[in-house]
Amino acid sequence: MKKIIIFYLLLTFIIFNFNCMTNQPIISNGKLILNSNPSGAKVYINDEYKGDTPLELELQPKTYSLKLKKEGYKDYSKSINIERNKTIELSIELEKEESKQSSIIGKWEAISWNKEPNFDESKLFFPFYSGSTINFVDNKNFIMQYICEYSPDGYGDANGEYEILGDSYIKFMFSGLINVPMLYKYNFQNINDEYCLILSNEDESYKGIFLPYNKLNIDIDNLVGPWILVYDYSYVFSRMNTFIISFDDENVEIYSNSGDLVNSDSYSLQDQFLIIFNKKYKIVEFSKTRMLLSDENNNKILFVRYIEFEHFFGSNVQSDLRTLANCLEAFYMDWGKYPIQMNAERLSEFNAGSELLGNNYAKINKTGATSATNEKGPIKYIESLPKDPFDPNGNSYYYQSNSDGSKYVIYSYNKENGLYIYRDSKGNVGELKERPKP
């Protein structure tokens, strides 16, 4: 009898606890309703693709990272907090990306140029010498002013119409000078924190770097530094075989073509005038690269600011690293990780580079695999891997990831100065004396 009573008490206890467990309140989800203008934007929650707007989602209560992406519009990002039994409704106005057509309109001045040793300059109508300018007046017309030491004004003018072709080319049609259109490659780059326009011929054996034209205040701070004499019809400076004049806070020094110091003197600024060797010159134009003077007889003297050209290779590297970084970010969106390559090696078609090329050596982006956006692999993210200009064998850039593919670093090594030019998954860009790690 005692055993029967114990059995029934135990059975009652189990049934009671089972009822308690089954009657526990269920934690309700929250709802997210998304609309965008324009519609059709891809929605990512914690970097996972969920569909296109307009979209309704049921989510567990917690904080999420929301991203909207649409071609031709800037990415939208926001942190959202989903609460139990509550609905969040968002109507998002997407901001249109500025087109390259509108980005190029305005006046640009050449700050530096480069050419291959065997380049035939006669093939290029407009030489990108420092001090030259291009003014894209509107979305159709242009005016060029190029350095010409045989001209009474020191420069030549050209004008006509231009046309943007795709994302990489610009075509110039010159008025009354040449009937054959001139085709140039172009792109925009950030060099030394400056927004630059790069123009080159088809095989990039000749390049010019341009900054947005900006007149500077005529003061000592903006004057300080070396300037190259381009032409001088007054013969004041050219009689001294001048190549460079260099200003500090008090004095100006004159250097010859051979680099010898020819003369030095104090100088002063008075309103729009520069006084050197007790002679007064009117400052007609003063900008980032140009200082155009006029003597008492209205003879023109043009100096262009001396800018070291060493950064040009570096700018190419940064451009390539940015292109690769964009491809890596697209890869991450599709596959949830970066290409895994734990040891620092050159990118190639046989290692992590195969993931971006979408070839048979890919381990993640491979035939039969399906990305987070339901796209079948392999996916081609880049046509060809860029060549590292510092590598004598023409290989691509170094790439290294951590073990789970959540971080990466890409870089180039310049043996001449012992610096690593790098870019990583956190968006850090710069130069280091030690090899960067992810």
Q: How would you summarize the topology of this molecule?
A:
Blueprint: H1 2-22, E1 30-37, E2 42-45, E3 48-52, E4 55-59, E5 63-69, E6 76-81, E7 87-93, H2 100-104, E8 106-115, E9 133-136, E10 141-147, E11 155-165, E12 169-174, E13 182-191, E14 194-200, E15 206-212, H3 220-223, E16 225-232, E17 242-247, E18 251-256, E19 261-270, E20 273-276, E21 279-286, E22 290-294, E23 300-305, H4 311-335, E24 345-346, H5 353-357, E25 398-401, E26 408-414, E27 419-424, E28 429-432
Parallel strand pairs: 1-7
Antiparallel strand pairs: 1-4, 2-3, 2-5, 5-6, 8-9, 8-15, 9-10, 10-11, 11-12, 12-13, 13-14, 14-15, 16-17, 16-23, 17-18, 18-19, 19-20, 20-21, 21-22, 22-23, 24-25, 25-26, 26-27, 27-28
Please indicate the percent range of residues in DSSP E strands (runs of 2 or more).
Answer: 35-45%
Number of separate domains: 4
Total E-strand runs: 28
Shape assignment: elongated
Low-pLDDT stretches:
21-25, 309-314
Q: Report the CATH topology name of the largest domain.
A: Glycoprotein, Type 4 Pilin
**CATH classification, class level of the largest domain:** Alpha Beta
Mean pLDDT: 82
How much helical structure, as a percent, in the residues?
10-25%
Summarize the main sheet: 8 strands, antiparallel, barrel
| CA-based gyration radius | 32 Å
Q: Which structural class do you get from the secondary structure elements? A: mainly beta
What's the architecture of the largest domain in CATH terms?
2-Layer Sandwich
Give the N-to-C terminal Cα separation.
73 Å
Report strand order across the widest sheet. 8-9-10-11-12-13-14-15
